[in-house]
Design brief:
The protein is α/β, with parallel strands linked by helices. It contains 7 helices and 17 strands. A hairpin with a 5-residue loop joins strand 8 (215-219) and strand 9. Helix 3 (72-88) packs antiparallel against helix 4 (95-111).
C-alpha cells in the first residue's frame, strides 16, 4: 500500500494508537489527524494539550505527519446545540452518536478525509461486504467494547470510506500490544463522558447554559412530595444516582416538562422503570433497509436485536413498521430498563453481527413525557 492513502484519526488514547500500529504493520503509512475542539468559549483545554503531546510523540515514533485540525465552531453549533435543545425539551440526547455522524465523519471527511482513500479510527467495530458488494457496519469481536451503537447514525456513504483496525481483537489484546511495544499511552485510562468534552462535568455544562429550575420530586404511585430537584434537564429516565433522596433506591420513571416535575418510583424491581415497547422515529438505515422485501415487517414483525443504551447486551425482540415514514415499534422479548425518549435505539441483525442503523425513541407527548 502506498504512503498517504489513509487518514488516521488519533485521539491520544491507547485504542487509536494501537489501530495506527496495526496499519503500519500492514505496510500503510497513514497521515495522522487530531481533531481539536476547544472548551466552551474556547478558553483553552489542558486535556487537549495533553492529547496532542501524546499524538506528537506517536507521530515521531512512526515518522508520520500529524496535522491538528479545528472543528470548534462546527462542534458547538451542531453537537452541543443539539444536546442543549434536546435536554431542554425533556429528552435524553446522545452527543457521542451525533459527534461521530456530524463531526468525525461529516465535517472532517468533507474537508480532509476526502483527499485520502480511506479514514481509519480506533473504534471497536468492523465491516462486512455482502455478495452484492455492499459494505455493512459489523460488530467487533469484543462485545463489551463494541461501539457500533455509537456509529449507528452514520450514512452508507460515510461507512464506505471507513476502516476499523481494532474490530477483530479484544481490548485486552490492545492493551497487551501497547505495553509490548512501549507506547507512551499504554497505561492511559480510557476516556469517559461526552465526546470531546474531556474533563468537563456534564451537569456543570448544563448549569452554565441552561441554569437551574427548581421543581418537585414526586412518588409516582402515591403522589407524595419527596423532595426538590434543581432542573429536570439534570435527570433522565432510569436514573438512580444524584436524586438526593433517602429510603431508596429511587429511580426516575417520568418527567412532566410543563410542570417541571420529576416522578420517581422506589425499589430495584419496580415495574415502573421497565418497559417492553419502544416507539422509534426518524429511523435511518446505514447501508440499506434490511426489511425492504420482507412483508412481515408490515404485519407481525420480524426478529431483531437492539440496544437502547451502550451495553454489551443485544436485546432480542420483534420490529414492526408503522404507517408514518421512518416510524417503527420494537416489541422487546424482555423488560428494558430506563427507556428514555430522545435516546437512539440501535438496530441489529438477529445474529448480532450487523448494525443496520438506528431510530430515535419517541415519548409520545413531550409535555407528559410518557415512556410506555
Amino acid at each position: 500500500m502506498s504512503a498517504g492513502t489513509t487518514a488516521m484519526l488519533l485521539s491520544g488514547g491507547v485504542d487509536s494508537a494501537v489501530a495506527l500500529h496495526r496499519l503500519v504493520e500492514q505496510g500503510d503509512s497513514p497521515h495522522l489527524f487530531y481533531i481539536r475542539i476547544g472548551l466552551d468559549g474556547d478558553g483553552g483545554d489542558c486535556a487537549a494539550d495533553e492529547d496532542i503531546e501524546i499524538c506528537t510523540l506517536i507521530a515521531r515514533r512512526y515518522g508520520l505527519p500529524l496535522e491538528v485540525v479545528s472543528l470548534h465552531n462546527e462542534y458547538w453549533d451542531n453537537v452541543m446545540a443539539y444536546a442543549l435543545r434536546t435536554v431542554k425539551a425533556g429528552l435524553t440526547p446522545n452527543p457521542d452518536i451525533m459527534c461521530n455522524s456530524i463531526i468525525k465523519f461529516g465535517y472532517f471527511e468533507e474537508r480532509w478525509g476526502k483527499d485520502f482513500d480511506r479514514t481509519a479510527t480506533g473504534h471497536y467495530a468492523s465491516t462486512w461486504f455482502d455478495p452484492d458488494g455492499r459494505k455493512w457496519l459489523a460488530t467487533a469481536v469484543d462485545p463489551v467494547k463494541d461501539q457500533t451503537d455509537f456509529l449507528a447514525r452514520i450514512t452508507g456513504r460515510q461507512l464506505a470510506h471507513l476502516t476499523f483496525p481494532l474490530g477483530d481483537i479484544p481490548k485486552s489484546e490492545v492493551r497487551a500490544i501497547a505495553a509490548g511495544i512501549k507506547l507512551p499511552n499504554a497505561q492511559r485510562r480510557d476516556s469517559q463522558g461526552i465526546c470531546f468534552l474531556g474533563k468537563i462535568n456534564y451537569n456543570d455544562f448544563l448549569r452554565r447554559h441552561l441554569g437551574e429550575k427548581p421543581g418537585d420530586i414526586v412518588e409516582l404511585e402515591t403522589g407524595r412530595l419527596l423532595g426538590r430537584h434543581k432542573g429536570y434537564w439534570f435527570h433522565t429516565i432510569g436514573q438512580r444516582k444524584g436524586l438526593g433522596l433517602s429510603g431508596g433506591p429511587w429511580f426516575v420513571v417520568r418527567k412532566n416538562v410543563d410542570d417541571n416535575v420529576l416522578f420517581v418510583s422506589r425499589g430495584y424491581d419496580t415495574d415502573k422503570q421497565y418497559g417492553r415497547r419502544l416507539h422509534i422515529a426518524e429511523t435511518q438505515f446505514i447501508t440499506a433497509d434490511p426489511w425492504a422485501d420482507t412483508p412481515a415487517i408490515d404485519g407481525d414483525g420480524v426478529e431483531v436485536r437492539f440496544k437502547n443504551r451502550h451495553t454489551p447486551d443485544f436485546i432480542p425482540g420483534r420490529i414492526v413498521r408503522l404507517d408514518a415514514p421512518g416510524e417503527y415499534m420494537i416489541y422487546s422479548d424482555r423488560d428494558v430498563q430506563g427507556i428514555a425518549p430522545g435516546q437512539f435505539a440501535a438496530l441489529y441483525s438477529p445474529d448480532c453481527r450487523l448494525c443496520y442503523g438506528s431510530g430515535i425513541i419517541s415519548g409520545g407527548s413531550i409535555g407528559n413525557s410518557l415512556t410506555d
